[in-house]
Design goal:
By secondary structure, the chain is α/β, with parallel strands linked by helices. Helix content is 46%, strand content 15%.
């Protein structure tokens, strides 16, 4: 399949998890690796179409700032496939915990599955339960996946999300993308994090491979969201969650040192490819 046709197929495929989208997009972009002009234009269109997919920004930026874009794409795919974020996240979930999550997230889902297995081995009566806050966020799919694993699950109306967060032992949020001091997460995440912070519950943010962006690219996401929401934060398709509401931020290398993170900010995983921020007039 021609690289452009491959990308058109991906554009028509509907919702796909970020990790799978990176793998498929990298395969298509490798075909453009020897044509820098086409790579730049195509990368701009990719991130413009998927403004909240941090790993796609990371993939495109890594390829555009590399002397060997094809090799950069291969390295990105390797990092995605070997991402250990979920393994570290699972260790934050104690046996018997009531966990609050906001809709669907592949890294959170994987962490819950791992935690259920680990905790059951440690304590036969230490099964976890999960409150999945509903919304336009894949909550039904998360519930079905948890039910298949025989994990106790409750689908929670968004109006009662704050009550679920306050009653939970731990609140797990997943980042679409992170900047220096904040992360973009599913809509409703800011409310859950705020309630958890005030109720002194453990709020843990997952920042998987590819989500940690330079601040200039993170600002580009904000600009794209503002353009689609008429500048009204309440109309955005995501919430911006400050790191200081979180008890822990977990990345592919393990839990961050929160004192260092809050003082120095999140370290990006790619260079600031500012050519991605230019938008076509049409």
């Amino acid at each position: 399949m021609h690289p452009i046709e491959h990308l058109r197929y991906l554009a028509r495929s509907g919702h796909v998890d970020a990790q799978e989208l990176v793998v498929e997009t990298a395969a298509a972009l490798r075909g453009l690796g020897m044509d820098p002009a086409s790579l730049v234009v195509t990368s701009r269109r990719i991130v413009e179409r998927n403004p909240l997919c941090g790993p796609l920004w990371w993939l495109c930026a890594s390829m555009l700032t590399s002397d060997d874009p094809r090799e950069a794409a291969r390295q990105c795919v390797s990092q995605i496939r070997n991402d250990a974020t979920s393994e570290y996240l699972a260790k934050e979930i104690t046996p018997g915990a009531l966990v609050c999550v906001n809709g669907w997230s592949p890294d959170v889902m994987h962490a819950l599955a791992l935690a259920s297995d680990m905790n059951h081995d440690l304590e036969p009566n230490g099964d976890i339960e999960v409150c999945v806050v509903d919304g336009d966020n894949g909550a039904d799919y998360m519930v079905r996946c948890l039910e298949r694993l025989d994990i106790g699950v409750h689908l929670v109306n968004p109006a009662h999300g704050g009550a679920a967060a306050a009653a939970s032992d731990i609140i797990l949020l997943s980042a679409f993308a992170t900047g220096v001091s904040t992360a973009w997460c599913n809509s409703g995440s800011l409310a859950l994090a705020s309630v958890g912070y005030c109720a002194q519950r453990k709020v843990v943010l997952s920042a998987a491979v590819g989500t940690r962006l330079p601040e200039v690219l993170f600002a580009g996401i904000v600009n794209d969201l503002d353009a689609s929401s008429a500048g009204s934060p309440w109309r955005r398709g995501a919430d911006e969650v400050p790191f200081d509401l979180c008890a822990q931020v977990v990345v592919s290398d393990g839990p961050c040192d929160m004192v260092t993170l809050l003082a120095n900010g999140m370290k990006p995983q790619c260079l600031p490819a500012t050519e991605l921020l230019i938008r076509s007039a049409i």
